[in-house]
Design goal:
Oligomer: single chain
Shape: globular
InterPro entries: LolA/LolB/LppX, OM_lipoprot_carrier_LolA-like
CATH superfamily: Lipoprotein localisation LolA/LolB/LppX
Strand order of the largest sheet: 7-8-9-10-11-1-2-3-4-5-6-12
Keywords: Signal
CATH topology: outer membrane lipoprotein receptor (LolB), chain A
CATH architecture: Clam
Number of helices: 3
Structural class: alpha+beta
Helix content: 10-25%
Order of helices and strands: HHEEEEEEHEEEEEE
Distance between the termini: 25 Å
Protein name: Outer membrane lipoprotein carrier protein LolA
Length: 215
């Protein structure tokens, strides 16, 4: 489980698309839903998500762990188990408290991070988008949207489930070419909270005993 989480979180550095080979297709209805949800989140001073992170193989989730995600503007903090990722608007800090390691890197221009809202922006240039109708997810009547990569990036497809009434994300399923699956199911959402001004700041003094690698 730990290796899977680290792999997913570190994908923000490792996965990048270099160019587009095929023409992109985006369903108009799906685009409207995605843009409405994006505009809703962008209108907030900050957002907080509490979610469950599930992983498994062959489309079946076998393990789940809790996670939290804070975002304000282009900054964010993501934490799952003993792995934390912070983006301060300039660099990405991957912190593993179990291995006592920190990796620091500049984000790729078209990087992909598996978070509650990353695909709301990434779909615009990197995926074909189709609207697959409505689907009930944990009692919520959601809009089901499928993203398929234009260029090979290790992902076979992504399923997004959105509440178009509240204009919020409900669930994300990421299916890899190697048959692995990662799922984020949002359990709690809060917005416009008073947060610590150092929420998105990496302080090296707190990690004196860690191995710190800057890429």
């Amino acid at each position: 489980m730990k290796k899977i989480i680290s792999k997913v979180i570190l994908s923000s550095i490792a996965i990048a698309t270099v160019g587009l080979v095929n023409a992109q297709t985006i369903d108009a209805k799906a685009k409207k839903i995605l843009d409405d949800v994006t505009a809703n989140y962008n209108s907030k001073k900050n957002s907080y998500f509490k979610f469950s992170f599930g992983s498994g193989m062959n489309g079946s989730v076998t393990k789940t762990e809790p996670g939290i995600y804070y975002t304000a503007g282009d900054k964010y903090k993501l934490k799952i188990m003993d792995t934390e990722q912070v983006f301060d608007g300039n660099k990405i800090y991957n912190i593993n408290s179990d291995d006592m390691e920190v990796t620091i890197a500049k984000p790729n221009g078209s990087s992909t991070m598996f978070s509650p809202i990353n695909y709301l922006t990434n779909y615009r240039n990197e995926y074909n988008v189709t609207y697959n109708g409505k689907k009930n997810v944990n009692g919520i009547n959601t809009e089901f949207i499928k993203l398929t990569p234009i260029k090979a990036n290790g992902i076979k497809y992504v399923y997004l489930f959105l509440d178009s009434t509240k204009k919020q994300m409900v669930k994300i399923e990421q299916h890899g070419n190697n048959k692995d699956v990662a799922v984020i199911a949002i359990k709690e959402y809060k917005e416009n909270q008073e947060v610590d001004p150092n929420m998105f700041v990496f302080d090296k003094n707190k990690y004196k005993n860690y191995i710190i690698t800057e890429l």
